[in-house]
């Protein structure tokens, strides 16, 4: 059984990476099979739950490939820590204590692996993300900055993790001697729980408080985890007091993270908080053009008809991952069937994505939601009043109508009391300009857009 589990772990390492194998799989003890169920002992409930959610399918596949017929996994929690693969044999003298080994661990062993695709060179910059990109660039240069922490937030697939990886990679390239630690909030919590269990909390503190740069992704995950928040708060303060840079990301602004302690929220907001706005048409088109250049190298000779990228940029607005995934699927499908990527093939290949991306939102829905948000009458959206309290919400509704529907400017103008298309265009541009500098307005738009799209 040990040989089979060893083979399975080698296979897992190739699929999930050595770091994830060491962190999550190595602590498990394989206890054999009963029927078609593989049994494992885990040192903590946290580890067993994590493995069940994230790696169960991979473990099952690896065991099947190694010769076992496994259809499900079962976990029990045992406080006995299994021996590590790199632990000395019973008859070999240990050179260092476990605490000393943890203390000597290099940052590369602690950090999450970086995705080599996520660099500044292939990050497509547009109005929705130009401030976040500029701030990330400034931090990555490694010189003194006037903001600490840098807090990036936004919805799924808008580029937060891309920028986090790009910052870490750039800083390591510029300053090889710097200890740049990048990990997720879940990994931070796991390390903390592990330190508590092993009675090695001082080693944990030394590990995290002696880095040059601390980068934590998806920090909203520690909300509601009181002990982890406490330790994060003290780690944050210790690093800031030493002048060390902190970079954080989350799916929402610090003030919107529920169950986060007020003192932690206050710390998160004391630097530069930057919102990555939902992509606009121009940015989506730029991303598609950039991705197309990369895919053409993988699929030489494959042709893409004029208008396909523009069509995709207009129709698929949910997030960048869906957009890039759709293009990847198109190239693969066209290569298999030996056809040019034209509009017919695009509709055939992406029918499920296009259906889910259909904009069923009406201009009236947008007007109603904006009127409610700003506490004005719905009739004012189409009426002649030009007071600021009415004109600005009306322009926001025009902007959202342009962003979230397929209606043309003249059509939108007709829905706003028969206004000329140039009036709509002026309103859209005005909101774009104001939102670039007015964080309150940008936040209003983000909240409205989220409410309308959900």
Describe this structure in words.
The protein is built from 22 helices and eight strands. α1 packs across α4 and α13 runs parallel beside α15. The protein is α/β, with parallel strands linked by helices and 454 residues long. About 6% of the residues have low confidence. The strands form two sheets. The protein has a five-stranded parallel beta sheet with strand order 5-6-7-4-8, with helices on both faces. The two termini are 49 Å apart. α11 links the parallel β6 and β7.
Find the count of extended strands (DSSP E, 2+ residues).
8
Classification by helices and strands: alpha/beta
| Rg over alpha carbons | 26 Å
Structure annotation, total helices: 22
Distance between the termini: 49 Å
Mind summarizing the main beta sheet?
A: 5 strands, parallel
How much beta, percentage-wise? 5-15%
